[in-house]
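ok so i was messing around last nite and threw this chain in just to see what happens. nothing serious, just curious
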Amino acid sequence: MTLQRLKTLLARVSDLKGAAGLLGWDQRTYMPSGAVQGRADQSATLAGLAHEFFTADEVGELLQDLSDKFPDYYSDDASIVRMMWRDYQKARRIPAALLMEIQQVGAYAREAWHTARTQNNFSHYQPHLEKMLELQTQLAETLNTAADGKPFANKYSALLDRFESGMTYEIIDEIFTGLKKPLIELVKAINANADAVDDSVLRRHYAQEQQLAFGRMISEALGYDYNRGRLDLSAHPFTSTFHRDDVRITTRVKEDYALVCLGSTIHETGHALHRQNLSSSLYRSNVENTGLATAETLSRYYENIIGLSRECWTYFFPKAQEFFPHLQDTDLETWYRAINKSFPSLIRTDADEVTYGLHIILRFELENELINGRVKVADLPKEWNARMEAYLGVVPPTDSDGVLQDIHWSQGGWGYFPDYLLGTIFASQLDEQLLREQPNIKQDWARGEFGGVLHWLTDKVMAHGGKYTFPELAQRATGKSFTWQPYMSYLQKKYGEIYGL
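result:
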C-alpha cells in the first residue's frame, strides 16, 4: 500500500508536467502571439503545482520509508524510489516562487528571443536574457550541493546536475578538453581538402510540401508511430512528450537546402522513438523522464549513425528520387558524400558530425563563464563570434546567425547544451557495442529493415527511461565506462575515407 500510494502521488505530478508540456508545445507551434500573458500565467501555475505536489511532506516520508525495501537495485520499483528520492531532495531546496518566476520569465523570454532573432536585434532580447541569467544563478546557488552533501567545486555543476545527474563541470570539461584538440585538427584537415566533396545536389529547390512528406515517410519507416504522434513546423525543431502515447515532433524547412528538414526530422524521430518505447511499467512514474544526455544519445544515433549511413540511403535514395524527380541525374554515392560534407557552419542545428561538437563546447564554455560572472550578457555577441572564429574559422555576419540562434537560454535550459555532445559521443559507443553483438545488422538497413536496431536500442536504452544515471547506463549497455574515444575513431575513419585523409 505504501508503494501504491507513492505511485498515485507521483502520477499526479506526471500529469501536471504533461499538461504543462502541452501548453509549451502549443506556444511554439500554433498559439497566437497575443496570448503570451495568459500562457505565462498558466505555465507558472502548473509548474508551481507540480513542484508543490512533488515536494509534499507525504512524498518525502514515503520515499524515505521505502528507500531500503527493494534488494534488486535496478528493478522498476527500486529505481522509482531511488531516483525520485534523489530528485525530491533537490526539488525541496528550490523555492516554489523561484520555479514559478523562471517559468513566467521564460514565457516572455521565448517570445522576445523569437522577435530578436527574426529582426536580428540582440538588444531586444538582452534584458530578458539578463533576467533569466539572474534567476539561473539563484537556482545554481540554491542547488549547489553534491550527492555527498558538500558544495560543488563549481556552482555551474548544480545546473548540469539537473539535466544529467552526476555529470559535474569537471567531468564534462575533462571529456570536452580531450576531444577539442583532435576535433579542431580534423576540421582543419577536412577544410584543406574541402573540394573533395560536392554538396550542390542538396542546394537545389526542394519544395516544402515534398520535404515534409518525405520526412514523414522516413520517420515512419524508422518506427515512429503516428497514431501516437504528429509532425509540425516550428522555428526550432523539438520533441514534446506528454506521455508515452502522445509524443509529438516538429521540424523546419529550407527549400534551398534539403539537409535541414531531413536532419531535423530524423533527429526528432530518434527522440520520439525513445519516448514511445518506454516500458509501460514506468508510465506516470516520473522515472519516464531520462537525463538529457541519454535523450540526445538516441536522437543523434538516428540522425547520424543511421541517417547519414550509406546503408540507410541504399534503401531511401531511390525513394528520394520518386519524391524529388530532379534527383534522377544523381547517384547514391554522390548523395551519400553530399549529405556527409563537412564544413564550418554558423548554425548548430545545421552543423555536420565533425563540426557539431565544437558548437557545443563553445556554449558549454560560455554558460560556465556567464554563471560564474566572468562574461556579461552584453558581451555575448562579441565572445560568441570570437570563439566561432577560433574553433571553426567562421564569424557570424549577424547575431541571428550567431548568439541568437538557440532558444534554450530563453526558456531556462541552462546546463542542457553539454548533453547534446555527451549524447553524440555515447551514440558512437553504443554503435561500437551493437556491431560487436550483431556485426551484420547494418545490412538490414539497406533493405529498409530498421526493426532490429530499434529492438536492440529499446532493450539497451529506450525501455528504461530514467532508471539509471548516464554513467550507469553506459556501463550496463556497453560493458564499459563512458568514453569519447569511440566517437573520435568513428569520425576519423568515416571522414578519412570520404576526404581521403
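not much to say yet. The chain has 20 helices and three strands.
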